[in-house]
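Hi, here's the filled form for the chain we discussed.

Project: internal
Contact: R.S.
Residues: 430
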Amino acid sequence: MLSPLLLTLLVRSQETPQPAGDGVQDDTAAIQALLDTRRTLVCLPTPARHYLISKTLRIHSNQTLQLDPAAVVRLKDGSDCVMITNDDHERGNENVALIGGVWDMHNEGQSLVEYQKTRNWKGAYDPARYLGVQMRFNRVKHLTLRGLTLKDPVTFSTQLGNLTGFTIEDITFDHNLKRTNMDGIHVHGNSRQGRITNLKGATNDDSVALNADDGGIFEMSRGPIEDVAVDGIWAQDGYTAVRLLSAGSPIRRIRLANIFGTYRVNVVSFTNHKVHPGSESTFEDISMSGIFCAKSTLGLKADPAKPGNSNLSLIWIDAPAVVSGWVISDLHRTETIRPAATIYVEPGATLKSLQLTQAYIRNRTPGPLDLLVNRGTIEHLSLSQVRLEASAGPARGAVLRNGGQVQERSLQQVSVVNTTAEITEEQKKP
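And the returned structure, exactly as it came back:
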């Protein structure tokens, strides 16, 4: 004889419509009905074909939606909406988890967004506006995204803001690169105590964007981003591995570790983008370790003997960034594509302190490759165990090419092989 509890669950399961998963019938209502039971765990079995949805699914507090890793959820053509979000953006949610599944937005079946058509991003953020975002979570305490494959968004794979205590891990980006602004994990302001780890695949913008400020129609939330660890990014022909953006709100205590692959633009960028003109751009206590990266050949049209624009350096510090407590260790680069600088500091940017240890740069391009190009201000620079190696062909590269100000410097075990000088200074002196 069934217990009253089991009997109740059986009756409820019979009353709740089950998704077809045949790739033809619209499963939105059936999946939402399962979520609306408020069960702590909702499991979707591997469908015969795929789950087809046409409206945004809404997940509740204290709830996990779990799918088999191979189960596909696909957005119906012409739906032009977020695939899944938390149900209360005003008061917030807690303990929300999305685990497994291939989430396919099918960007070629959706409309281009306003920004992709016009490049106009100005205006106020409106949650009802179509931004081409695949998943959106706002004001969630303890959000978990795990084991997802994020396929072909129109813009961002994820748009996240106002988060506390979040975990994002084991994410695969399966992006066709047919749309612009295809970010991976896009985190807005007022987000703290987060862990982002094990991201694989190339995106068509930032693999990880930590944007304390964003500006215009995209600015879901604005405020500090603090205490976040990013560990493990793998991409061949990626765009930028990690963007840090501050335009009025600080970014503090960030750890970036174990980044691999080739990138078309940057490995890490410190940016402002004037989304709030005249605002400060503040980065504090940033550590980077285990960087194993070089430039990508994808879309390369420039002369491979020339470094290209400064914003194509592996690590780019744009003005008016003020960076303090910045430590880089265990940086490895074997460059065969183009001699873009490894680190470039723009005029008007300030490094309060930069400590770089254990860097090994091999230049296999026909042009000169510099480790650090400074056009701004560095108040204290410490370089130790640094080796810049060039084959016989390339022209001279420099460990430090200084066209700005370096107020204090400490150099230990710094060497340049196959060039005539260990440190090259331009005419402009501190």
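Let me know if anything looks off before we file it.
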